[in-house]
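Quick check before the chapter quiz. The format below is the same one you will see on the exam, so make sure you can read both the input and the output lines.
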Amino acid sequence: MHDLNQAIIQCERCPRLRAWCRHIAETKRASFQDEDYWGRPVPNFGDPEALGLIVGLAPAAHGANRTGRMFTGDRSGDWLYRALFRAGLANQPTSIAATDGLELRSVLITATAHCAPPDNKPTPEELSACQPFLAATLAIRPWRAIWCLGGIAWKAVHAELGHRPFPKFSHGAQHGIVLASYHPSQQNTFTGRLTETMLDEVAQTFARMIDGG
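Here is the expected output.
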């Protein structure tokens, strides 16, 4: 895991994404002007002995690109970690900074793209360039459960696992050990497309699968 994370952090495969991350890290958001931004590809985060894997889309420009930890410092992470806490998979419901003491139980978090993309939209070429990191993460061990946040993650995981044709994505879908939910992005949570109850249901199913239930 250490070697994989070091390879992720040092990656320079996507010039557009690297330039964007550095730009955001230099200009910063006004409310974070006194903070040092991470500004690099964001490594996997979680329990090194995890049996459950969560796959997101990409770091947020002022979230993980700022803090250096997956789903940390943004509203998507607020939703995700609250759900993991209620499911017994995190020791606290908040994720503010990489030094805040958050620990995950048997969960590792990765993404289809490890750099923050403009408008939260990595290109197909950028996703393809990052796919080897997802492949390496999936190959670490025989996972008991894989939770995909959104359709892009769902498709990327099934592509890597060789499941064709791709099973249809929908919130709450399950194909073998792979689960799906809407991504806890503001476009889903602010509109009511995704509620905390809906996210909790998937998180609890994920927890049961990790525990062998």
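If your answer matched, good. The chain has one domain: 2-210.
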